[in-house]
């Protein structure tokens, strides 16, 4: 625990070199040794936790002693969470490495961004969308995500896996499509997610595995990794995700004018959007506000002041990168 306290107190620069370039590299190297396992390792953790809880309550002992055992287990769980990944929050933030410098967007900026995202979406929509399994998508995007993460100073050895977490709808019903689990060193996607959304979401979660903590940054890295991928279906996933982020913000601000722009999309893309929305409706939220509240507070506690609003920072990052000529 003393070591954890020392890591907490380290300034960002030392956290980068001591944890990011040291401990976390070792962590990822160890997880690479079990990356060949084909099924989600989280299942083993669930079985282990159930067994330990059963064993605790099956044996004799006072309520006080059992409560202390549970408390010790929780504390060790928190310690492992930080050692295996969460000390990445103590490293210099993505916003420090690539600060958002643009002024707030006005109505002209918003319409320009929507037109840009719409144009990109229309230009890359393949005539026939391919349906890949998750392993195929991993292989098609891994090198791109690794390269982009390295460009921003996030390097981790080995293979970061992203696997389907069954049963279908488990994650979507708590208003998420995927997550990275430090205890297993791999990420999980809900198999109920629409096929168009899978590649972008997979790249987002893979970015977390490289040590990126900011949600908007992971969105941005996923976009950079996929927006010019040679596979048109993979590329379309990135542009669809970005269009939906921009469209959501634009529709909130200018609902009347948005409808005309939405209706001007090719019918194939309108159909794709309708199918994505219809698919999400299949999995209504179990706790509509609770998940957002918990995760928003968690992100703010870790130093991400914008909380869940940080997801939308992808728009600012893409605009800024485009102004430098890196995205056209």
What does the model show?
This protein starts with a helix and ends in a 5-residue tail after the last helix. Helices cover 62% and strands 3% of the residues. The radius of gyration is 21 Å and the shape is globular. The chain has helices spanning 2-9, 12-32, 42-58, 63-84, 94-97, 107-124, 134-151, 195-209, 215-226, 232-253, 255-263, 267-281, 290-301, 313-323; strands spanning 162-164, 178-181, 186-189. A three-stranded mixed sheet has the order 1-3-2. It is built from 14 helices and three strands. 31% of the residues are buried. It folds into two domains: 2-90, no CATH class; 98-323, no CATH class. It is mainly alpha-helical and 328 residues long. Helix 7 packs across helix 8 and helix 9 (215-226) packs across helix 14. A hairpin with a 4-residue loop joins strand 2 (178-181) and strand 3 (186-189).
**What's the number of structural domains?**
2
* Residue fraction in strands: under 5%
Q: How far is it from the N-terminal to the C-terminal residue, by CA?
A: 49 Å
Would you tell me the structural class of the helices and strands? Answer: mainly alpha
Q: Helix segment count? A: 14
Strand order of the largest sheet: 1-3-2
Summarize it.
This protein is mostly helical and 328 residues long. The protein is 62% helix and 3% strand. It has 2 domains: 2-90, no CATH class; 98-323, no CATH class.
């Amino acid at each position: 625990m003393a070591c954890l306290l020392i890591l907490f107190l380290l300034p960002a620069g030392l956290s980068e070199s001591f944890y990011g370039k040291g401990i976390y590299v070792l962590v990822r190297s160890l997880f690479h040794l079990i990356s060949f396992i084909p099924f989600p390792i989280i299942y083993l953790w669930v079985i282990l936790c159930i067994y330990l809880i059963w064993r605790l309550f099956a044996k004799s002992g006072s309520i006080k002693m059992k409560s202390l055992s549970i408390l010790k287990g929780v504390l060790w769980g928190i310690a492992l969470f930080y050692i295996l990944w969460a000390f990445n929050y103590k490293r210099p933030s993505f916003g420090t490495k690539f600060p958002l410098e643009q002024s707030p967007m006005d109505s002209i900026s918003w319409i320009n961004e929507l037109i840009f995202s719409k144009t990109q979406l229309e230009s890359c929509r393949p005539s026939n969308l391919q349906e890949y399994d998750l392993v195929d998508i991993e292989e098609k995007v891994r090198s791109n995500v690794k390269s982009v993460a390295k460009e921003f100073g996030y390097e981790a050895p080995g293979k970061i896996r992203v696997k389907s977490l069954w049963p279908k709808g488990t994650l979507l019903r708590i208003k998420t499509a995927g997550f990275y689990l430090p205890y297993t060193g791999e990420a999980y996607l809900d198999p109920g997610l629409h096929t168009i959304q899978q590649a972008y979401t997979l790249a987002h979660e893979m970015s977390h595995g490289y040590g990126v903590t900011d949600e908007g940054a992971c969105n941005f890295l996923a976009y950079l990794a996929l927006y010019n991928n040679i596979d048109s279906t993979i590329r379309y996933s990135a542009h669809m995700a970005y269009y939906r982020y921009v469209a959501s913000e634009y529709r909130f601000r200018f609902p009347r004018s948005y409808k005309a722009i939405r209706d001007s999309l090719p019918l194939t893309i309108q159909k794709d959007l309708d199918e994505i929305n219809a698919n999400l409706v299949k999995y209504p939220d179990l706790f509509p506000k609770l998940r957002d509240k918990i995760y928003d507070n968690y992100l703010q506690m870790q130093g991400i002041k914008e909380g869940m609003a940080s997801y939308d920072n992808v728009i600012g990052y893409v605009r800024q990168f485009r102004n430098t000529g890196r995205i056209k």
